[in-house]
Amino acid sequence: MRIIFLAAAAAVLVCQPVSAAPRTECKSQALKDLNRLSPQGHDVYVAVTDKKFFTRWITCDDTQLGLATAVHETVHLLTEEKDAFPLIGGGSVKRVHDVSRLYPPREIAARFNSGSTYVQTYLRPGAASSSSDFMYLLDELNAYTHDLNSAVKLQPLHKGGGQVDHRDGLAALMAFMTGYVDTAKRQKPATWQGLQRPETKHVIQTLWNQAETVLASSCGIPGIGQEDRKFIGPSASAPASTRDQRRRRARAPRASTRPPNPRNRQSRMPCGTVLFSRPLREPAPGL
What predicted TM-score, i.e. pTM, was given to this entire model? Predict the structure, then answer.
């Protein structure tokens, strides 16, 4: 579920006159642009049987956002239909249902800023399925990977002053994954053992490596993220006591919880640097 798009769509519907019909004239051209600029995103459209499910997310006001959202939501649908995570470039990895018995991801919520929309949506108790089931956290990781991959490729369609959160979702889900595995290693021996099962390990590493590659591809693109800096870096998902110690040593000022204004400060990624501690990447110690 791509949360920012859904909120924006709801706002548009509230503000529109009752007689106003949604603009749809751009959809045919949008699909052509997707095939031209992001063939891997177009593969998602080709793979789904219900084409209307895909095209319903396309908006004429922000084609880049609409197409990336369509890819994201359709990846969720394909995952459910095929019981497997679709991969960028073709193929898939089967879901491992045993991971649903591991500790619930909501237990790591305290490691992150509670004011974050992503924390509230994916980790808050009683919210999305990802808060109670690790398999659905993997599902969101994969959907946001496809989402950002398409958004990067569709950058030529970007309109100035438009959507600027494309990188946020993947940055957040990668931080959640890092925090989940780190907590398992430190405090949850049964889950840690479960994560090391070959089939589970293979799924996690495959999705993680794909996500890391896509995140790196967005480096240097200005204005493509707002909350991403809150999640990126080896200390982003560290326990609170560890973060506090690092902040005191660095004498860093307290970060504002207010998203930066993209007109005043553009969000850029430090390309060529380690973005996360890598407990999920091959070869990861103990995983």
Answer: 0.80
